[in-house]
Fold each of these.
Amino acid sequence: MKLPTSRPLAAFARFLLTMLVLALAIWAGWMLWMHYEVEPWTRDGRVKANVVQVAPDVSGLVMNVAVHDNQDVKAGELLFEIDRARYQLAYDQAQAVVRADIAAQDQALRDVKRNRSLGKLVAAETLEQSRMHLQQAQAALAQAKVQLASAELNLTRSRVYAVTDGRITNLSLRVGDYVTVGKPVLALIDSASFYVEGYFEEGKLGNIHLNDPAAVTLMGSSAIIRGHVQSIALGIADRDRSIGSDLLPNVNPVFNWIRLAQRVPVRIAIDKKDAQTTLVAGQTATVSIEQSDTDRP
């Protein structure tokens, strides 16, 4: 009896190896296709934060700048001061007017009491006039108190304070500069407001849900920042449509045969990050939405 040769076994082994390699290649191709075309993942992400544009509430010359560029500040910390001389004079004048109006009101009140106590010895018209003068004095005093409060507010607002904890950035304000009401003069980045905004292709939005866990990595770093989906934008600009001069829609007549998927902003709230990782508004980030098996197509 002859033993079976090894050639058929070797051929079968090569066949199995070929099938295994082919299966692995198909599996790898499938996973790559799922990762790049289906799973919610994007390299187009940005680190963002709330930026407070600090503007004075009164105009004047800057007399003191209490901070420097890239300085961390606490809420309520002095940022800069505007020349208070003019506002101090206005406050003192308003105080003087209030004192004068108080004296006028007191005199009018005494006149009313005196005319009333005299009874029929004083004409009714005189009593009525004294009452009218009292009302006018009371109105003038009320107006003077409002002006005093306004002058006090302006004097207080000549000192500008930080409204939140954060960091001063791109500071160019100098002593002697003239600042104007409502015109921003420095930026304050709210240190507690950092978040990540990822721009996902519209075809992947079906796999993104509120509160889904997310992993964020910054360019040049391997550290993973954990977060979750906080919100999804409900609208983006339509570049092919505008409003004409007669308020009718103006639609671009040129149709692009190559249709690129629109990108929709998805806001990622940061839950946990490495203490060594420093977030900078404007950084580039890669965002991946982690899905459970039930969420996968």
Amino acid sequence: MNIVGKKVPLDRVRNTGIIAHIDAGKTTTTERILFYTGKSYKIGDIDDGNTQMDWMDQEKERGITIVSAATTAFWTPVLPHARFKEEHRFNIIDTPGHVDFTAEVERSLRVLDGGVIVLDAGSGVQSQTETVWRQADKYHVPRIAFINKMDVLGADYMATIKDVHEKLGAKTAVMALPLGVENTFLSSNVPN
């Protein structure tokens, strides 16, 4: 695949969807991915209406994603023991979370190699989370869960993991544990 002078073999191209219930933090998570991969120099903010993914006027006004939006980021493993050392292209698809746009999410799921399901640590698995999970099952989309909003009041990491087991019927393998919760949550400060 050749995009603006970058040739990446098809076996190193991945279509990855960001899927979740409304307000779980899909677009905000995507903005950080774009920042950390060097795709953008500044993290966009939904409240300021300057995210890369929510480009329509209606999306900026309402603060929600209405149509799926795609962008590309490149990543090269840097660890010396990494199995792959070549650059990979990730086509990132930020999907809507509102129930009214469920068909838009399903349309996107058909082309995904994998999905990141974003969960709000304060709310756990919500109704639209269950819907997009079933849709991903239908299209055999492998998923990884990302528990977001650990700094909000009522955030509960283990309750969210339990929710994934009970409501989604998924087996989980915890890959990272948060440091703290709510106002004691430790995260790196990223310049905006």
Amino acid sequence: MIITSVRVGSRYPVNRKAIRASVERALKEHGADDVEVSVSIVGSRRMIELNEGLMKHEGVTDVLSFPQHDPEQHEKEFPRTVKNDDTISHIGDIVVCFPEAVKEARKLGKMVDAQICFLVEHGLMHLLGFHHD
């Protein structure tokens, strides 16, 4: 079972069903099940607080991931390592900045919900141990 909790500020029109579907599809593609993921959609101010306070990077960013395990350890064996019994493992939290997603969607000629789903999937890959330079 895959559990995706989505928290969205009331002023951000977001398709929660699409976010849940993106998470479920990506997790199934990577063989991860019996996991829980939290997704939060926030404004620029909150994202700056998180990025500067926790990540020690200046300014706003589009997406942050906060794993609840060491993703490097699980890169290849993630599904087997997390699923050690019948419990559901919370693998981490993904935070997307709504205003940044809107800017990126406009720049790329995409729908905002499609860009948000892309960013959520990007963050999810970090939770699964896949990283870029």
Amino acid sequence: MLRPKLNVLDESLVRQMIDEALQLLVDPGVRVHNDEALRLLDEGGAHVDADRQVAYIPEHLVWDALSTTPKSFHLYDLTGAAAVHYGGDEVHFDPGSAAIFILDYQTGKQRSPVTADFVKFVKLVETLPQLDAQSTAMVCADVAEEIGDLYRLYLALNFMRKPIITGAFRKDTWWVMKEMLTAVAGGAAGLASRPLTVFDVCPSPPLLWSDLTCQNLIDCARAGIPAELVSMPLSGATSPVTLAAAITQHAAESLSGIVIHQLSNAGAPIVWGGSPAAFDMREGTTPMGAAETWLIDAGYVQVGKSLGLPTHVYMGMSDAKVLDAQCGLESMGGALMAALCGANMVSGAGMLDFESCQSFEKLVIDAEIIGLVKRTIEGVAVREQPIALEIMRQMGHRADYLAHPHTRKWFRKELYIPSDVIDRGSLDAWEMKGSKSTVERAHDRVNALLLKYPPSPLSSELRDEIRQIATRAARQFGMEELPTLPE
């Protein structure tokens, strides 16, 4: 079966981009604001200017690092079952991460999310089969800012079953997050052998690794926890304006991260990901729904695949502020393009307003988009041989296939059947159901799905243990107790 697939670069251009990225690592080199990373690079064979905190990474060091980087790995759910496969052209979806606002359905306005919102979101993701993983989707405003990252993970671990994509905002809180994950996984060895999370690590464009992101990268590698490189060139602002040059910069930043990562622990899993954008020259914004952003994303995924690496993108989001036509067209376009490129993890469901806001209603609409997209990339299958001769000769000129056993046998495999969020009824049927808009139907589905949430498999003992870990960290920042968990 031919699977629909999209490439936006020819092979010679991919090779040139990689070659130029390798040259950029030698001149001008990479700024590295972390002493341990500089030491690793120096001992590994790079030329390091310690005073300027710049590493000049030779080509052979990059190829050595790539030779030890795993080509694929699995994420596991809380029951220990393999749930997500990074590698090849397998495509999975998870929600967008780290929103600082939530779109309130009742008011139509954005507001800061709190614990109850996050828990509701996690429960909703668990009920949506189109989503393959959780994410630490929003930052709660009802806890100390210093524990914002670990608190997201703490909440998710209490209510999730699916694996999760997360990230740390500080060096010290990474260790708290690891401690909670280790407890849930039954020990450090279990966490490394059956990882249930990926940590995003983000270089700063152009060609800079901060102290925080370097340390997160190193710590993930040494713990065997998968890391996800999230290079973010902004074409025309923090990278050259041409799309090809932005993709090349992405490659240089990502290759430097792989070198640091593999020098820390050769063979540790890492993902070639990103969240670039094409800078909007009129508004001064970073549109994730722009065609140029999608092309940069598709291009860097193709480069990563040419190197045999697991891949990730932030796509399927919208820059709209409400759930309108713009929101739908941008979300569908990005999600479809990401899937056609074969990105292993596509992050972005539920998100709007330049990656800053999450919406429950958008999440369930996006789930339907994802269902359509997943069906699209399945392509056209040959279910039987001969394809049509036997059944059509049997039926002749009768237009009565609906009752035929052949239809009953195959229609569920052939057709994606959406929920009521997608209206496929007649006008009369739509009016009889209240003439509801897509957003109204999505809101109804949110409420219906939350009633179907399956309880988390996490034991009460583990819940108590991770609460103690998170509370201990909170008290270091003047917060004596964490908010009470919703039921």
